[in-house]
Amino acid sequence: MTGSSAGAARTPRAALAELLTGNRRFVSGQPVHGHDVTAAAAVASGDQQPYAVLLGCIDSRVPLEAIFDQTFGSICVIRTGAHVLDRAVCGSIEYVVGQLGVPLVMVLGHERCGAVASAVDTLRTGERPGGSLAYLVDQIAPAVTEVGADDPRAHPMAVRRHVLRTVATLRADDLLTGPVAEGRVDVVGAVYDLATGEVTLLDH
Ligand SMILES: [Zn+2]
After folding, report:
1. pLDDT per residue over 138-147, tens digit each?
2. How far apart are CA 52 and CA 22, in angstroms?
């Protein structure tokens, strides 16, 4: 394997460039790390020095380390249905930013997200799911309402709106808002296209 690039990207801009370059390697079918899922590679990672923390969906088609062609030790990954936040997620991000000095947080939504589809269905039918799935749907619902649940393109628009809402919530997080204001940390949103493998940044 090539030497780890972990630790090289200590600014938000450099970290973002590193991630997007990795995605381009993945899309082009020429990953550097994608094939190297070995114990030897894990051991070679040494101390943890990640440069980004990614919050994505649980969807089995969106493995974050793979689509950004990352290696052991380079990124921290948190996954929940439609990247819904709760205190454990926020605390984990605060830890990575505050304790590990990571300069970039990326929220990644994706096309054809089942959790977002559940929220669209709930708002269209009025039938709210039970259990903790209701929490998930409730957290996504405001994005669906904002784009209009009955709009034929409600799902793809809600995917993007929900990413931006999640970014805004994280930017306002007690322990992140200071570093973000100082420019030491950035929180960005992006969407993954299942059909092409491409990650596209969203303006915020
Ligand atoms: Zn999803």
Report:
1. 999 999 999 9
2. 12
What's the gap in Å between 27 CA and the centre of ligand 1? Answer: 20
What is the Å distance from ligand 1's center to 2 Cα?
Answer: 32
Cβ–Cβ under 8 Å, residues 25 and 19: no
133, 84 contact by CB (below 8 A): no
- Phi first, then psi, for residue 187 (nearest 5°) are -120, 120
H or E segment and range at residue 144: helix 133-147
**DSSP line for 147-186:** H-TTSTTHHHHHHHHHHHHHHHHHHTSTTTHHHHHTTS-E
Share of the chain above pLDDT 90, in %: 82
pLDDT digits (tens, 9 = 90+) for 84-136: 999 999 999 999 999 999 999 999 999 999 999 999 999 999 999 999 999 99
Within 10 angstroms of residue 153's Cβ, the number of other Cβ atoms is: 9
pTM score > 0.70 for this model? yes
Alpha carbons 185 and 178: distance in angstroms, whole number: 9
Kindly calculate the radius of gyration of the chain based on its CA atoms and give it in whole angstroms: 17
Q: Could you tell me the distance, in angstroms and rounded to a whole number, from the CA of residue 113 to the centre of ligand 1?
A: 4
Q: What is the pLDDT of residues 19-62, one digit of tens each?
A: 999 999 999 998 888 766 677 777 777 778 899 999 999 999 99
**Under a CB-based contact definition with an 8 Å cutoff, are residues 76 and 91 in contact?**
no
**Structure-token match 């990352």, residue found:** 70
